[in-house]
Amino acid sequence: MPRPLATGATTYEAALAEAKAAWPKLRVDTGAFERRWRELADDDGPAPLAIDLYFAQACLEGDPQALAQLQQQVVAQLQLLSHFRFSREDQEELAQQVMTALLVAGPKGRKLGQFAARAPLHSWLRMLLSRAAIDRLRTSKGPPPADEDVLLGLPGPQRDAELESLKAKYKGHFSEVFRFAIKSLTPRQRNLLRQHYLDDLTLEELAALYKVHRATVARWMQEARLQVMAVTREELARRTGIPRAEVDSVMQVVQSRLELSAAFFLSVPAGPASG
């Protein structure tokens, strides 16, 4: 039976009850969980997702069941990057690299300890793996994936035929349009995305860097994301002449890969944007 979806419980008592109902067998120091939940809930952002935050706490405390589940989630999310065409050895190294970052203290502590549960854990893990994959591409001697593979690289056998059709039908347009959208951002917006997606700075670190509140950085990030999507949508329609309904359908695919796409395109030199 699948566990319930995490929600943003508005009180600690509700958050704890929700988390325990979802993970009844996990051993968690509820005092540590309460301190972390209240720390995040006191911020101006949305309430943390109790179920995922509780699970992360169990992993940090070394609960064997939680650690096994975390390993499974990392492997599952790594499979979503299959379009990068990594070897099995590379995949295993990426999984181990991310697991180590999550659980072994580095300069900023254990990565999982920074998880704020603003978004589901699986999405957060996918972003970590995406960054690790892009870092590997930078140092790899092999050919990088095609731009359309990054923008339209959603996994899943049920979507393979549709994705291959999109890539063939609009070959070249996506990379041109997305680069144009990235270049449409202000220097600060590009720097924010680069610092967040590539340099792995948290919203809190960015807020300290820019001497503003975390909520201000979150708003700046959201504005940048929305602009990238809006410009991509408009330019794709203008350059291809495809019907608006089809553009919107395609954009649902692109939007689901926005973070990976932005990280990839910000990591390589941008060519001239064509108008």
Beta-strand fraction estimate:
under 5%
Supply the number of structural domains. 2
CA gyration radius, whole angstroms: 20 Å
SS-derived structural category = mainly alpha
**How many DSSP helices?**
14
The run of helices and strands is HHHHHHHHHHHHHH
Indicate the percent of residues in helices. Answer: 55-70%
Low-confidence stretches: 154-159, 270-275
Describe this structure in words.
The chain is mostly helical and 275 residues long. It has helices at residues 12-22, 30-41, 50-60, 64-79, 88-103, 121-139, 147-151, 157-169, 173-183, 187-197, 203-210, 214-240, 244-255, 258-266. It folds into two domains: 12-139, no CATH class; 147-266, no CATH class. It is built from 14 helices and no strands. Helix 4 packs across helix 5 and helix 4 packs across helix 6 (121-139). It starts with 11 loop residues before the first helix and ends in a 9-residue tail after the last helix. The relative contact order is 0.10. The model is unreliable at 154-159 and 270-275 (pLDDT under 50).
